Input
Amino acid sequence: MDVNVGVIGYGYWGPNLVRNFAETEGAGALWCAESQPDRRALAQRRHPCATVVEDAQLIMEDPAVDAVVIATPVSTHFTLAEQALRNGKHVLISKPMAQTAAECQQLIDLAQQNDLVLMVDHTYIYTGAVRRIKELLTTAELGDLYYFDSVRVNLGLFQHDVDVIWDLAPHDLSILAHLVPDMPREIAATGADHTGSGHVDVAYLTLHYENSFLAHCHLNWLSPVKVRRVLVGGSRRMLVYDDMEPSEKVRVYDRGFQVTTREGMYNTLVDYRTGDMWAPKIETREALTLEVAHFIECVRFRKAPLSGGATGLAVVRLLEAASASLKAGGQRVAV
Amino acid sequence: MDVNVGVIGYGYWGPNLVRNFAETEGAGALWCAESQPDRRALAQRRHPCATVVEDAQLIMEDPAVDAVVIATPVSTHFTLAEQALRNGKHVLISKPMAQTAAECQQLIDLAQQNDLVLMVDHTYIYTGAVRRIKELLTTAELGDLYYFDSVRVNLGLFQHDVDVIWDLAPHDLSILAHLVPDMPREIAATGADHTGSGHVDVAYLTLHYENSFLAHCHLNWLSPVKVRRVLVGGSRRMLVYDDMEPSEKVRVYDRGFQVTTREGMYNTLVDYRTGDMWAPKIETREALTLEVAHFIECVRFRKAPLSGGATGLAVVRLLEAASASLKAGGQRVAV
Amino acid sequence: MDVNVGVIGYGYWGPNLVRNFAETEGAGALWCAESQPDRRALAQRRHPCATVVEDAQLIMEDPAVDAVVIATPVSTHFTLAEQALRNGKHVLISKPMAQTAAECQQLIDLAQQNDLVLMVDHTYIYTGAVRRIKELLTTAELGDLYYFDSVRVNLGLFQHDVDVIWDLAPHDLSILAHLVPDMPREIAATGADHTGSGHVDVAYLTLHYENSFLAHCHLNWLSPVKVRRVLVGGSRRMLVYDDMEPSEKVRVYDRGFQVTTREGMYNTLVDYRTGDMWAPKIETREALTLEVAHFIECVRFRKAPLSGGATGLAVVRLLEAASASLKAGGQRVAV
Amino acid sequence: MDVNVGVIGYGYWGPNLVRNFAETEGAGALWCAESQPDRRALAQRRHPCATVVEDAQLIMEDPAVDAVVIATPVSTHFTLAEQALRNGKHVLISKPMAQTAAECQQLIDLAQQNDLVLMVDHTYIYTGAVRRIKELLTTAELGDLYYFDSVRVNLGLFQHDVDVIWDLAPHDLSILAHLVPDMPREIAATGADHTGSGHVDVAYLTLHYENSFLAHCHLNWLSPVKVRRVLVGGSRRMLVYDDMEPSEKVRVYDRGFQVTTREGMYNTLVDYRTGDMWAPKIETREALTLEVAHFIECVRFRKAPLSGGATGLAVVRLLEAASASLKAGGQRVAV
Output
């Protein structure tokens, strides 16, 4: 049976969700709730057969709605998701999942008790690029991992209810958590607020692990240029994932070094090795299309989603620790 | 009268110094000391008229030598510079100036007492790009400064006696100190050692100032790609300085934001402004050529160099604080 | 009153037309004709309120349809457009307008006799980039024009009924005709057929004008990389229009040369001048959105479209001459 | 025994030749002739042990000189080379070898009669990139070759005695001739003179072969940007050789198409195939260093150089035919 879906929020990201649900096989009737009249009119014009309403409660309470998709500001995620789950609806929540790890845990428990699907929209892990990188890591193409360095900067857009860390870092942290399942032990965050909004607009995160693997994220709303680049260093190979490249988003470099210790000498010798570069073919289908189809499939067959509640919780735990570190002036905070 | 110059060290950087002194007007006879026979042979072949010797002491003690240029490992800088100054010779030292701020101060005092020129080879501040950026800042083209974010990563080259911070950060810190004369109050450094050499090969520095200006450097010896990029954000404009671009190394973006507070409302409104991009013409002469000519001029006319002992000291103070923070697990350390 | 629109063809480009008409203010009820069942199903799913039919004649003969949009293979353009005009419908035709200049002229005459709007979908001239370049040329920012060099290459897509010139060159020729209103006097075309399809898949066009201005297009279906770049040289400035750049698609270079003749000397002296580069802000709205709104406006107020029949005819005349030159082994053919 | 070398001309390219001969093992004493006093002074300062003279005849007539290297304007190549060969000296000539094919043939004969090495400085074929591409073609990595498309454009530098074809095309034609040994049957050239110098400053060459392989060169002295890019299409793979890339100059794309003919149908079906991209490691040593060493080796052991007289002649034959085509308004001219 087709899954009837109600999307709450038709702002920045909502339109992409609605469009994909409208075109995905297995998705049935479509609802959309949006408080702003002009956005509502746009939704209705684009999707004349959808039921476009002002009040999200109409979706929450309509027994015909099987699944609720939450594309509203972060501060509303928990309340909406909780209500949807209590009303027996499957839930797909935009990132980040909620404002606290405790809230995330409550939602996970609630979904489990009611045998409902709870999924978080960590779109990036459904991209052809991240899936290809995951394969490379699974087959140990890179050897031991040394570091993960991501830069995600551009001009705007300010979210009014969160800072740049809560806005942008969920992307990098979800990619990182997907690629490197070990949780970091500590996180340090630093940043600055230049607009006087009370939220940092430039921030740096450092994630410390049990071993010498190091992860770092540069997040910035005030950059003149848009950069979306991740470097991953390994003992056998290294890679660059540049999401701004129109093609060849992932480049694998057969480069590395070898340490030799000369007998009787104090110094170690480090020799560098430079080889070919290789850009594997990447699937180019829209990630959200895959993700939405995956959600529908999980709902229909009660499967565990790739980006389920546990993933959403892991990301929020990191964000919470980052906020704590930020308040503590950049000190390392245990995750 | 021409200035006779003795260059100590013909390794990685020495050849560039020797070549420039050989061609600079006002530079006279040339000496070069190098311990490795093959490097010495190369120096002699390239500069058949130079006096190429094994032992640096021959330069130190030769009364015909007016100025000594030190292009040896960091650990030898202080001893060599001190001796040269005591012997009445002007000194140009490769970066970083010395291993401790105390040593730098001693050299500064010694030079002053003997009325000798003491200059540090912070080459970047003589590039057309950095000089152009300095002009832009001097005329407040960027408005209030928000942040300075630099990335300096590549594969190798390991310095055996220093870590990646002492090897690469002097470039960024000298550029930063040149552009933003205020000293930071605190610095935090974090990094990791993946080769087991005892030196970090990936590191991040964060520099905190009295106001909300924030500086950050990413330094990495294990990157598959070479990146040399600085972002500078300001209230009126922002710029990108990409040293890997063959031309248009500096791009100024007429982009920014405005904060408006709506009466009676809790939220502030942030509006972004996007305008033209502009790449000023940059002088393309080799920076080291300019710098060497400047050193010769300072020696001849007893001028204060643009990158004198004080600049070298400032950079070393930052490096020392960074090392202290690294040891303290990334805690902020007062500069 | 709203304009009711029937789109014929839901293949490669049709979906973009249908989507834009569906969302454009002033466009009313929507029809779509498509012969392939799976494409028809897709159209209906995306536009549940549109009347999706198999047979284009239903659109042609429905008196409720005010305007017909033709997005079918080139060989069908003339027949469909003629019928639509005879049935009193306004017409928007995909590029190229028709297979011969004679057909184009017939359509122009027919539209004029029946007081109907006839427009050709030369999308590029509605892009922010081309409109900005047009402004630069209108204000003589570039001085006298020297050359127009375009490269439009990628892998595929083969049109089965036309060669690479008729497939790709309409873009460049419409941009060129828009920027440089003078018609060339002669055109030379050369190319090669590597697939044995009877159509050239790699081709070069050279357009000769009355003065020394020179235009050239490289068209290629067999390129490993996608390039969409135009160089325009002028006596005062030069520009690069790179459509693959995510931003800064147009870059103006304050570069040129000056010729001075030294008295009593045979040789002239050519001095180069290199100045700043400047990337004007470009409007980023989708070109087709603007174009569709323009078509609706022309229909409602009987305005002459920016890319009317005359523009479509000019492009087809150039294509016809190019084909004649290609047959004649690359000889110049009068336009 | 070491080869004593006299370089004639210390203008744009001469300094690179002198520097390389000064450092190449097997090269002995060095002479340099240059008519301009300031250039002569520079040569002497850089190479204090070289014999720097005003009059080239001193080199021609000095029996100690074994080999003459000609780095003067094209119009002087033949006279100087002829004299050198008559005087029993080996010769290395800058590109293009001479002004006519007849002159080239005379020099070849003269060298043969006197058992002397005659080599042309087609530097590009000694680059790591071109050597790597040659290997790829030799092992048929690209399958059947479809086309060779080169773009070599920048701002300046005008050669006063030749046009842009004779200045820039020797590079592309020598690369092409090296990679594709078959000579083209016909060549067509078109161009324009915007400076009134009597020489074209923008030009396009098309080279026709016996089969459907097609070669094309875009040459331009009036481009705002510097482009040095070659596309090579093949039936199995395609490649891009971008000389402006700091690394990964050669990228091989596993892309192509397959033609299938459906029974009973008129149309052939063309399917595209997109696979990985691969950038083989390229040797980064300076090409001229290799070339100079090769010349010395050829002289010492009487070897036939990789870029001997025959190569120089082939390039000049193409240039002559291009000039004839240019005069004939772009008509194909037999080579």
